[in-house]
Amino acid sequence: MAVPESYGTTYQAAEDRYENLEYRRTGNSGLDLPAFSLGLWQKFGTDYPADVQRDIVLHAFDLGITHFDNANRYGPPHRAAEKFFGTVLRKDLAHHRDELILSTKAGNPLGPSPYLKGGSRKSLLSSLDHSLRDLGTDYVDIFYSHRPDPSTPLEETVGALVSAVQSGKALYVGVSNYPAETAHQAAELLRAAGVPLLVHQPRYSIFDRRPETGGLIKLAAEDGFGLVVYSPLAQGLLTNKYLDGTIPAGARALNSTFLSADDIDDTYRERAGALDEIARERGQSLAQLALQWVLRQPQVTSALIGASSTWQLDHNVRALEFPPLTDEELALIDRHGIHGTGVRV
Ligand SMILES: NC(=O)c1ccc[n+]([C@@H]2O[C@H](COP(=O)([O-])OP(=O)(O)OC[C@H]3O[C@@H](n4cnc5c(N)ncnc54)[C@H](OP(=O)(O)O)[C@@H]3O)[C@@H](O)[C@H]2O)c1
């Protein structure tokens, strides 16, 4: 891709950006991903200052975060996050496209049109074309089916993912929010088509244990795909920001439809407070404990975090600087990390 004329902001990528972060192999593939990836789901729409968003993305890259996760829906409004990222890519990161892993997803509803939702070939492939236009790139690195669609034959959804790779518009494919059994069927179909399933993107945190209980972690090992786990901080509930009973200005619980003040109740505070104690005993923060906890699983390739400031990024990427969790600490975390706490399941 030729460097556009508009290239030329003052951004210079940090020279030491590959010196500190760990990179992990994704399943049986040849692709390494950073232990932390940055998602643009929240706070990357038109409702948040673009200069702050730009600082966060570029700071992430400076820290060695090479993987940026998008979806056609991210905003608000829908598609705004990809348009924003496209601007940063064009103006600041054009020279670094080869160093970036960009992902996008399709299949979650965008509107009332039957072609703007679901897992049909039409929905997935026209959305991918739209995302490529918004991102201003010829290809994405990972194209996901955002969620299973029982009303569409799995063969059709998988066939669209295969076409995305065969047409050169995606390098790898993934599925997200698929239960283990459906993920296994998709992996088999993809393998037969010569396009192995690179990665699954489930929600996983101390407060959401479904990848453990639903067999996904075991399946990832058996089928040879990686896990890029989203909301490892349970959208901020696994940080210390809500522990004192108040909600700080600007926090997600005040301004998102996906987390509300009602989710922050006494049961949540009691459990999160106990987890915070465990973290303090280890000399780390609750956020760092929560991230280290998901990354203890070898099948977890990357913890997919959100951030509303560069401080959060700096703080969170230090999570792997602490000693591994002991069996006693893991048992204690299990006692307070009750599935479903504060999060909608
Ligand atoms: N595949 C799917 O269906 C799906 C669904 C959801 C998300 N995702 C992906 O996963 C990404 C991450 O999800 P997420 O944003 O829910 O992840 P998360 O890491 O659990 O939550 C991130 C939020 O927690 C707060 N935070 C982060 N670090 C903090 C710290 N050290 N101290 C205090 N607060 C802190 C920030 O919110 P505030 O400061 O704004 O409060 C931040 O935006 C998304 O961007 C998206 O790419 C995928």
TrEMBL record:
Record bears the keyword Oxidoreductase: yes
Which keywords accompany this UniProt record?
NADP, Oxidoreductase
Q: Does the keyword Cell membrane apply?
A: no
Q: Which residues form the NADP-dependent oxidoreductase domain?
A: 37-336
Short name of one Pfam family: Aldo_ket_red
Membership in a protein family = Belongs to the shaker potassium channel beta subunit family.
Protein name in UniProt: Aldo/keto reductase
Q: Which organism is it from?
A: Streptomyces endophyticus
